[in-house]
């Protein structure tokens, strides 16, 4: 059994310091996040190669917050939350639960989703999204045309299905990187979720 030790002020398991200087592109992303949330997530301060962090964060932003998405903002955040719950990514669960509430989803619904989406009061379309996200997250090697059959049956277009797959894919990536590096959730994120 692994002994639990408090991490104090550390923002991750990494044994290297946060970068003292950031590129203009990363500084812009951090400023955008601070303006939107009031703080910068620890994940945007980790000592990644800046061009990698910027590229991955811009893709996440495009898929989740991009104005030209085919899915509604609520549907996009629902996918991000279901994937994060399946992966037990505490940082991502709290962040996306809070974001889902900001789309107008009731806190009572979001609370159920953070435990078991199958018990949540979802529309047929939302249920198809959650089912797809769960299957692709848990059993990616088994993916065949039946995985997208449920989305088609719920009325999703082929173009929407591509977007769904990209969102599920990117959040499986971010969950795994966040988890293995031990990225810690900001205190401000806990407060925002509780206040929701």
From TrEMBL:
Top-rank taxon: Bacteria
InterPro entries: AhpD-like (IPR029032), AhpD_core (IPR004675), CMD-like (IPR003779), Uncharacterised_peroxidase-rel (IPR010195)
The UniProt record lists the keyword Oxidoreductase: yes
Keywords: Oxidoreductase, Peroxidase
Carboxymuconolactone decarboxylase-like domain sequence ranges: 57-107
Membrane-spanning segments: none
UniProt keyword annotation of Oxidoreductase present: yes
Pfam families reported in the protein's UniProt record: CMD
Any one GO MF annotation of this record: peroxidase activity
Cross-referenced PANTHER family: CARBOXYMUCONOLACTONE DECARBOXYLASE-LIKE DOMAIN-CONTAINING PROTEIN, SI:CH211-175M2.5
Cited NCBIfam families: ahpD_dom, peroxid_rel
Protein name, per record: Peroxidase-related enzyme
């Amino acid at each position: 059994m692994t002994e639990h030790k408090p991490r104090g002020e550390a923002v991750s398991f990494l044994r290297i310091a946060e970068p003292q200087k950031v590129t203009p592109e990363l500084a812009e992303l951090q400023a955008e996040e601070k303006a939107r949330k009031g703080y910068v997530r620890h994940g945007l301060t980790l000592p990644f190669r800046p061009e990698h962090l910027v590229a991955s964060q811009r893709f996440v932003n495009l898929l989740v917050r991009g104005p030209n998405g085919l899915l509604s903002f609520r549907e996009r955040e629902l996918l991000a939350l279901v994937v994060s719950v399946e992966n037990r990514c505490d940082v991502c669960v709290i962040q996306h639960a809070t974001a889902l509430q900001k789309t107008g989803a009731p806190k009572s619904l979001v609370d159920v989703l953070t435990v078991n989406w199958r018990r949540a009061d979802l529309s047929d379309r939302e249920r198809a999204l959650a089912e797809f996200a769960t299957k692709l997250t848990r059993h990616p090697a088994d993916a065949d045309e039946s995985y997208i059959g449920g989305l088609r049956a719920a009325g999703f277009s082929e173009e929407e299905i591509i977007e769904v797959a990209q969102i599920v894919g990117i959040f499986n990536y971010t969950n795994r990187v966040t988890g293995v590096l031990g990225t810690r959730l900001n205190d401000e994120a806990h407060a925002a979720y509780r206040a929701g």
